[in-house]
Amino acid sequence: MNVALPLAYQDLEPAPVWGAFALLNSTPRPSGQEERLRRVIEQLAQEKGASARSDERGNLCVVLPGRNSSPGAPTVALQAHLDMVCQKRPEVAFNFESDAISPRRDGDKISATGTTLGADNGIGVAYMLALLDGVDSAHPPLELLFTVEEETGLYGAALLDPALVSARRLINLDSEEDDEITIGCAGGAGVALFLPIEREARHENESAYRFTVGGLAGGHSGIQIGEPLGNALKIAGQILDALRESVPALRLSSFDGGTAHNAIPRDCHVAFATPAAQDGALSTAWAHISTAIETKWQDNEPNLVLSLEEAGAVEAPLSAASTETVLGLVRALPHGVQKMSERWAGKVQTSSNMAEIKTEEGEVAFHISNRSFLACDIADMQEHCATLGKNAGARVEMRDGYPGWEPRAHSPLRDQTAAAFANVSGKIPRIEVVHAGLECGLLSEKLPGLDAVSFGPTIRGAHTPEEWVSIASVGRNWAILQELLAALAL
Length: 490
Prior knowledge:
Layout: H1 15-25, H2 35-47, E1 51-54, E2 60-64, E3 76-81, E4 103-106, E5 109-112, H3 119-132, E6 142-147, H4 155-158, E7 169-172, E8 180-185, E9 187-196, E10 206-214, E11 219-220, H5 232-246, E12 251-257, E13 263-264, E14 268-275, H6 279-297, E15 305-310, H7 320-332, E16 336-340, E17 348-359, E18 363-372, H8 375-392, E19 395-402, H9 412-425, E20 430-434, H10 440-446, E21 451-454, E22 459-460, E23 468-470, H11 471-488
């Protein structure tokens, strides 16, 4: 692959994988804008003499003949998604549509410079590109399936043309614990609420203020929803409730935070107006609530920053009634674990992520993401959020979701994968389900009889600028993948 290897990747093994990942770092790939990367892969396939085909949505399948495989070896599909979550720290100037990711190396960790790294799911893509690049190891006939728009709703898999894939054994490379095999996942769906608001002119005797909730760790709204992580939107709502106890006439001007349905909000910005005569009461109330919140989160969110400043001008404030309605929804909409699984010990069964709030001229938009192993729980959570919205006077949109992936009672591929893990690491892997969305559920619906597993390297902080991948685990999983493919080639 003709791409300059960043300093962070020099001397790393396996070299073909890190070379492929460097190519991904240099090719912008936000959700819905995967075309550039798809063209790069198609060109590479052409250079290697491999056939490639795509469907109308932009999913791409590259077909490789078997290498040192028996004549009867069945075709196996490897699958990863091309897009990445685009998050950056507020102070970082970065354009995900044009700029290259700048990787950093710290011991065993590879991260980016103030942005998401894209190891989710770029390492899986890199494994597949390394195989395409001609790695000299045995494997059965392969279909390398590159899907699109996973991070915004698994739309590529949902609209996959089934004719693109003939294999009925599939290895998904989108897991993030290198000592486990994933055999099932939660499904998900969302709700959007659009609440009409009334604005009134700012009074001459009103002061204007802005405050920010920032520096939170954020995190993956499925995998990390059970961790003690702050939601910037909920914290901002708590602050406003506390301020209004001392200054009841406080009126919102804007409330904005969150950037993605699958990320726990890290930052929130609020503007409001209050009677100038109560500036002192406001200052006292801010000192009290900010100290209380910082104390509450000091262990789990040590980088939390709360800042208040007087603003020269803000948008026309909302009416008192609209302010109360908005804050009532912020208060009532659920966030976090809703139910733990009885079947899978220690696993979250059902959760809700209050993901985004955006203020426009005439409305405030709320976006909530719900997940569960049970479809009925997802429907119940959607209906609960919708009812809260309707009762507040909001227009409701139910966002189409994706199914969960039900574990198979009999899975030869699972057993072969476990054997490959044991042969490489000398340890028996954990067999797990995950409270996050994987495309295997949708692909199982599209491809009847599909036997699927998922595994991947250790990734932490996915969907945040703190994302990192373990160098050693990338090597271990590459060895496991090669061991498994060699076994499937027999």
